[in-house]
Here is the input.
Amino acid sequence: MSDLSAVAYLDHAASTPMRAEAVEAMARFADVVFANPSGAHGAAREARRAVEEARELIAEALGARPAEVVFTSGGTEADNLAALGTLALRTGAGARASVVCSAIEHEAVLSPLRAAARGAAAVLGVGAVHLDEAGVTPVGIVDLDALAGTVGEDTALVSVMTANNETGAVQPIGAVADLVRKLAPRAVLHTDAVQAAAYLDLAEIAAPCDLVSVSAHKLGGPKGVGALVVRSPHSVAPLLHGGGQEQERRSGTHNVAGVVGFAAALAAAVEEQPKERTRVARLRDRLADAVAASIEGVVESVPRELTLPGHLHLRFAGVDQEELLVLLDQGGVYASAASACASGALEPSHVLLAMGLDPVEARSGVRFSLGRTTSEADVSHALVVLVDAVKRLRAG
Amino acid sequence: MRVLVAMSGGVDSSVAAACLVEQGHDVSGATLKLWGGPQDSGCCSVADVDDARRVAQQLAIPHYVFDMTEAFGASVVDPYVAEHALARTPNPCIECNRRIKFDRLLERSERLGFDALATGHHARVVPGSGGAPHQLRRGADPDKDQSYVLSMLGQRQLGRVLLPIGTMTKPEVRRRATELGLRTAAKPDSQDVCFIHSDEGRERFLGDRMRLHPASVVDLSSKGQTGAVPALELVTVGQRRGLPRGPDGTRRYVASVDPRSRTVVVGSAAQVARQRIELLGDTLTWTDRALPDGAPAVAQTSAHGRPVPCTFERGGDLAAVRFEHPVRPVAPGQTVALYDLGEPDRVVGAGVVA
Here is the structure.
């Protein structure tokens, strides 16, 4: 029996604890090495050296050159910079630019692209845009035929995430890139790799992409820092203007401690990846198998072999996710569902709706995401609480 | 006891939660997201949810946000619009209490294993002991009493509902919130319908959702048309605002609205006054037992209206309350709350005006 006062944190896809390497690396940048790295004196040079060392580490882990790494305040800013920064340079004169993304992109991609399509990004210099959101298969993988039907000679930007944040479904980025290069030779290809970075080798997988978004806190780094890999040095216009940092692609004083922690975490994560993938997937499979054996009417929204190793998105027939999440929370099992709106209320997941589910089915889904600190005991505890919660909700 | 407290982000429900924590209950807070449109500070703006969440943090209790926008739209907003289209004037706060807070949320709280649901209403539930029925009574603050908007509750709900601040006055509630350092201590009371933005108002809200029809105004004194209104759906029986004075120079009140002939009938206060107000029989609810035909009671016809002694007349499809002296008319769709004549702070039931 598991300890009922125990806590099982199964929301690593939302955020995961910082690695000791990152915490340790960051410490001296609070007070010892505190200067503004843009300065021209010894203290500034020391801070700048830390930023550049971090940039090199991150570039290496992502298979990029250091000059391609643009530090941002996180994944959302990286996605916005990729979407709007690209369109600001590739729209305006002449016909409407065509933009294509998958229908399951994160809001940080969907929302700026939709804003651009309705003319709301004009202030950033984004001209007329037509947006197509390409559908996905019932298991949440971008439909390559649908994608092929929407891209063409006039496509300026294609954005397909490396792995989906809700379901964990890993997308066929190589095939997407082949298709885009063939049918839309002028398009910039962006991938939001925020969710994938902890487990997938981006140096290989994201190699064919022009723009790659990553975030530190999903892989054991601090919150508030991320990066956009920009292969072609000046292919994005800045969203933030000011001191001209990051080769004028992103102004603002460098988050020195943040990028140092980011680099330390990413390097450690990449080092551990092969081992962690296996370990986490085994725990995830144990949870999934036990749930399938103990609870009726459960569906894995995406088959496990198609997902990131830590993701398990389950739908419980006849159960409302809001209610299930309360019982899980009260039982010390921390999981989540679709993206929350500004108020914190859950909205029917656009990802599940794009997979062809109806709103009631979409509202029966809960995401369990395991990570580096997940143990056998967490899985055991989660199972006990989950079985009891589903039973209670179905009885009530 | 495990208690779920509905926290709107206002001071009353904040203090309600604090009281329950002090009493030693195992408390969780929930804020309902009821409406997605623009609104002021009603029940569910993002800022209100943030306030509720912050108070829950201060009280160290879990806090959840429940999205009930679909149910609220279907069982409160849509009927609100449909009733107006029939020239009736519903009370959406009462319908929200009836259909959402004390139905869906109450049921959810039971499924989630809570023993009781609490709200920050200014009213009191007196639990029945030894087989006696649970009672619903007016709140201790006569200016803030909200027993009217809870008057449709029955034994099933009253047995599971806690109203922790019903024994406090509003100044006491605010003082308590200040002592506890709650962010909501000085927050103004919400006033209007939560889903209608005060800048745009009811006219715009309804106008966006239905066709509004002009109507002629007929005066009971002259028996002829004396004017016109741009939208009969926005006219409320009993209303005085916006009407021209009568032939004798006295103020006019709306006596009735007929959507079919598109006519608004107005008259002097004496002409429009009613001695009897009919209630829809299938809307009658009782906190415990139904009043018999001819029973004396006290009627209150609006949230803060003056209670007036009456006689309850039980009918089939229609019931009624009869007054000794004529009273100002009450719009169809509004609720009449009935209180006990001997114990005038005790609610006995409610019905919707026919």
In short: The two ends of chain B are 41 Å apart (CA to CA). Residues 92-111 of chain B form the longest helix (20 residues).
